[in-house]
């Protein structure tokens, strides 16, 4: 049997991905490379003078390379992916996969720090925000800030992709949408009367 057999889930297809633009990733890698070369040159100059690399110079080199490298990697990590199975929001330190069955709606954020970004509202009322989709990060994503409109409240690519995919899910294009859970009926405990 192959992956298209009865009962097998269709493969996940990425419909849209917002992440740091390739030119910015390259700049981050170049910064780390420059720091490595500077630290190596410093230790080589110590060796040439006859002082040799000391434990302090090695520790200093590791700090000069390590701290900025960690900050660069954390800065490049945020992403927002729309797939046929749901939405994945990745932050600096964590991430969350949200299946379409949990999504109530996708809307534009009006918060000043996330203006124009995507907000995913779940059926339980939880709001999941993705800062990388905000208007202020458009250039960082390699997109035009003009996509967000003059008032920065128009739906740009990330929001349009998520809304379109959610509509397609509700129409059943990604398989049958899961039935929504019924609200819980009020429960009275009559045993104590």
Automatic annotation (TrEMBL):
<dbReference type="Pfam" id="PF10756">
    <property type="entry name" value="bPH_6"/>
</dbReference>
<protein>
    <submittedName>
        <fullName>PH domain-containing protein</fullName>
    </submittedName>
</protein>
<keyword id="KW-0472">Membrane</keyword>
<keyword id="KW-1133">Transmembrane helix</keyword>
<dbReference type="InterPro" id="IPR019692">
    <property type="entry name" value="CFP-6_PH"/>
</dbReference>
<feature type="domain" description="Low molecular weight protein antigen 6 PH">
    <location>
        <begin position="77"/>
        <end position="128"/>
    </location>
</feature>
<feature type="transmembrane region" description="Helical">
    <location>
        <begin position="23"/>
        <end position="44"/>
    </location>
</feature>
<keyword id="KW-0812">Transmembrane</keyword>
<feature type="region of interest" description="Disordered">
    <location>
        <begin position="172"/>
        <end position="193"/>
    </location>
</feature>
<feature type="transmembrane region" description="Helical">
    <location>
        <begin position="56"/>
        <end position="76"/>
    </location>
</feature>
